[in-house]
């Protein structure tokens, strides 16, 4: 299983946890994943299918990328929690694109 990802050269650890809970404001609820920029950590809930966990990893990586680029702040200044909506829609699209375009991915990585 994947143990870390890199976000703009920074190592972000990836861990699988049981019964992941996320606190938003005063509300704590179950979640499939969470990203912490203060701990450079992505947590994935164990109770999801392997395929769902991959999409969740993509989702949390997008949160990390938006955070690294300051895009989450731009979005949330426009509308509270807009980053969640953008990431929620973009993650399955990115996941699908990555799966469907291995040749394009190899090209982006510097291949022919
Ligand atoms: Zn999210």
Word description of this protein:
The chain has 112 residues and is α+β, with helices and mostly antiparallel strands. It has a single domain (4-108), classed as Orthogonal Bundle (Arc Repressor Mutant, subunit A), CATH 1.10.10. Helices cover 47% and strands 26% of the residues. The chain is built from 4 helices and 6 strands; from the N terminus they run ββββββαααα. The protein has helices at 50-68, 71-78, 82-100, 102-108, and strands at 4-7, 10-17, 21-24, 27-30, 33-36, 41-45. The strands form 2 sheets. A 4-stranded mixed β-sheet has the order 1-2-6-5, covered by helices on one side. The chain has a two-stranded antiparallel sheet with strand order 3-4. A hairpin with a 2-residue loop joins strand 3 and strand 4 (27-30). The longest helix is centred in the middle third of the chain and has 19 residues, at 50-68. The protein is globular. Bound molecules: zinc ion. Zinc ion binds next to helix 1 and helix 3. Zinc ion binds at residues 59, 63, 84, 87.
Instruction: Give me the strand/helix succession.
Output: EEEEEEHHHH
Count of beta strands = 6
Low-confidence stretches: none
| Major pleated sheet | 4 strands, mixed
Examine the coordinates and then state which fold CATH places here, giving the name of the CATH topology.
Arc Repressor Mutant, subunit A
Overall SS class: alpha+beta
CATH class: Mainly Alpha
């Amino acid at each position: 299983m994947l143990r870390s990802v890199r976000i703009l050269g920074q190592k972000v650890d990836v861990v699988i946890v049981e019964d992941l809970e996320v606190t938003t404001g005063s509300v704590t609820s179950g979640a499939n994943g969470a990203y912490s920029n203060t701990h450079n950590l992505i947590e994935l809930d164990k109770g999801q299918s392997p395929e769902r966990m991959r999409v969740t990893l993509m989702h949390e990586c997008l949160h990390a990328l938006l955070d690294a680029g300051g895009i989450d702040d731009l979005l949330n200044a426009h509308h509270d929690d807009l980053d969640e909506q953008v990431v929620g829609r973009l993650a399955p699209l990115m996941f699908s694109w990555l799966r469907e375009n291995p040749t394009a991915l190899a090209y982006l990585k510097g291949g022919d």
